[in-house]
Amino acid sequence: MHGLINRAIQSFICHNYGRECWLRVTEAAELGFVEFEPMLVYENETTDKVLVEIVRDLGRNRRDLLEDLGTYLVSNPNTESLRRLLRFGGVTYVEFLHSLDDLPDRARMAVSDLTLPALELREYALGHYTLTCQPGLPGYADVMTGMLRTMADDYGALAILDHKGATGGAEIIEITLIESSFAEGRSFELGARAG
Amino acid sequence: MTEEELAELLDQLCPMHLMLNATGHVIEAGGTIRKLRPDCSVVGARFLDLFEVLRPRRVMSMEELLDAPDGRLHLRFRDDPQTSFKASLAPLAEGAVVNMSFGISLLDAVGAYGLSAADFAHTDLAIELLYLIEAKSAAMEASRNLNVRLQGAKIAAEEQAFTDTLTGLKNRRALDLILQRYLAASVPFALMHVDLDYFKTVNDTLGHAAGDHVLQEVARIMVDVTRSDDTVARVGGDEFVIVFPKLRDRKQLDAIAKRLIERLETPIGYNGEECRISGSMGTVLSDQQAGGEAGELLHAADLALYAAKHGGRAGHRFFDPSMTAPPAISSAVPRDRMN
To answer: Is B117 within 8 Å of A39 when comparing Cβ atoms?
Structure first.
């Protein structure tokens, strides 16, 4: 699993639950280290162990926790660059949703060894979409649900998201757009680069 | 196609175009170009008054502009901000159309003019370029941080590799390097081999923790009685080597040895107990062994140390070529056996 993903988990736990919690988790998972390097690649099972220990330590539902991770990634100043990169996807929330098809390619453009499973957006009725998340990254759809829900706020759109579960390996997220400009949203200036 | 239809088409496809008339004045301008100069009227101005032509050189008139090879231009606003552009010029029956792009000045331009995605043609790669710049900067930053951490870890590892972790003194490896350096540079030095007396008794009666504490105190004492450019190394359990560069005065060396013995004999407290030790020393001067190698010098110091021990502990001897090692004692044998 790419270090960026592991590092994101570390950053989320440290910020929301404190460094003590993170140290307990790394100890329990027997990592032998406490800092993930964002630019290195780790064994998949390392990430699995960490997630198992986080869920055990916090006594929280795994899927809720991953959704919170998604929210954290696009709302916390620590990871502002990720939110900005996502906002390059489109001027409106709908454009952004459509840009998700390109997300794995965009990720690879930024970091050549970062591989994300394919995403596919379908509009099956006006304002009703489904996002199909292909398998390959456990919890991908949960994190994505949190991210998309928070990005709706970011764009000032009012949307309802529902993780419909898996069908034949792929997971489906249902997105209902109630109003695309419900609130002001957060500003996004092309020229204002995140520090 | 009428001129109006053409203007409509350009407006839709090229937000950064200008239409010029035969005299080289702007008669139409795309929305984004107008946004760059909100306070002055681009339309109606003479093109060459708005822009300086950087390439091709010396373009002063509309005729020369139309002559640009393949219509390729590099332009710059004459007034501030002096944004530069790449441009393509296509002649019309009368006048010309100039389509512009920011080229390499894109990043500065979006900042200076507060542009958004809507200001660029849908096919323009500007947004992708901006995305890439940000993504690569973030990735580069992460890589740079990793490099800094690895560099720090490398320095720490090297530091540790030359340091005896218990006492913080130099280790055997460091000592070998220092001796090699002095010998190669022909720096004269004195080499003193120090062996603690009664240390084994402390270890046996008070335990290893007490022994470790004593070694740490001894290290402190040795650093105390030596100069800052002398090297103090721990080379074995209770064996130390001190290297004194540019010191060959036997009296002075002897005085240092006596002072060291005196300090070592001051009881060291540990958990309410008193640890009593002493030390024996043997010293060799680097020029005592012609063409001497580090190994030979260490051996010579070892022989002098043996002589000091043999003559009753807590003593100091200088190496003398008549000294020979008894069969049972060599530097490979743990000195504890002699206690």
So the answer is: no
Whether B137 and A193 lie within 8 Å, measured CB to CB:
yes
User: Domain range for residue B278?
Assistant: 172-338
Q: Which residues pair with A167 in a beta bridge?
A: A170
CB contact B149 to A (< 8 Å): yes
The catalytic site residues of B sit at: 238
Structure tokens at B19: 């239409």
Cβ–Cβ under 8 Å, residues B87 and B74:
yes
Contact A131, A97 (CB under 8 A): yes
Q: How many domains does chain B have?
A: 2
Q: Which amino acid, one-letter code, is at A33?
A: F
Domain end marker among A11, A44, A60 = A60
Give all strands (DSSP E) within B137-222, no chain letters.
Answer: 189-197
Q: Is residue A83 part of a domain?
A: no
Q: Would residue B159 count as lying in a domain? A: no
- What is the ipTM score, two decimals? 0.79
> For residues B19 and B26, is the Cβ–Cβ distance under 8 A?
yes
Give the end of a domain, one of B92, B124, B156: B124
Of B204, B318, B224, B208, nearest to B264 by C-alpha is: B224
Angle, vertex CA A56, rays to CA A53 and CA A61, nearest 5: 115
pLDDT digits (tens, 9 = 90+) for B228-264: 999 999 999 999 999 999 999 999 999 999 999 999 9
Q: Is residue A67 part of a domain?
A: no
Does the beta-carbon distance from B142 to A39 stay under 8 Å?
yes
